[in-house]
Amino acid sequence: MARRGSSKRRSASKKKVTVRTAAARKAAIAPRSVFSIQGNRLVGPGVSFIETPNKGGDLSPRYLVFHYTAGKSAANSIGWLTNPESQASAHLVVARNGRITQLAPFNVKAWHAGISHWDGLSRLNSYSIGIEMDNAGPLKKVGDKYQAWFGTLYREDQVIYAKHKLDVQPRWWHAYTEVQIQKALELAQLLVRHYGLKDVVGHEDIAPDRKRDPGPAFPLEHIRARVLGRKEEERERYEVTASALNIRSGPGVEFPAVAEPLKKGVTVLLLEQRDRWSKVELVKNGDIEGWVRNQFLKKV
What we know:
Number of strands: 24
CATH superfamily of the largest domain: Peptidoglycan recognition protein-like
Strand order of the largest sheet: 3-7-6-11-5-17
């Protein structure tokens, strides 16, 4: 959260195999956005504007920075980011149901980056648009539930176990919702195109000594690659922990299997991560990709 300054296709009776080359994935783009920007304000369904007093100074943005709120809810975080005592803000807050609240125009500095450095520049508030994603951040396991720093408990299907790229040990993290990730992608595409932004980064990238948001539950590299048309950085590897794990054509049990079940110990590359499902590619057979349940994957 911001802080002050802080196919092969077979017949229907046979298994369906999804075959997509790296070039095909690279060429894929998100659906056309329903959002637009008018007078440096976001316009579209599910968008509202609540002005924060925690802003100031002209902004000619060069970068887009993603954060997590580390708060109880979007409403709670918006209340904090519009409270003068917080001395913190962001341009947008994306709720878990996909609703978006703008707190400052995109040509005005918001206070989300704090002490930060990127691409030879310091104090990224002066150079970036900040998006806060409603998410509790790191969690602690308590019995069969997972607890946030503010006490709220989450179910197993609401979390993921992963290692942050800046940390040594893995831990539990609050998962983002599918609609949140889709909105994040649409917003990134629109903002990069409209303002000619140079890069899409996380708070963890510009302040690695003190921040871990938006964290490993957020598919930042996937969004960056889709938006900027760059080759994605080396993908994270996961190991199958179930004795037999179905790999499906979509993120849900209603989708058909695309190949034989994956055996325990099989290594896959992460393509996209959602709240309960991940899209993966087999390391030893890159022509096969599909969706598997997050709870049966372990980071390696």
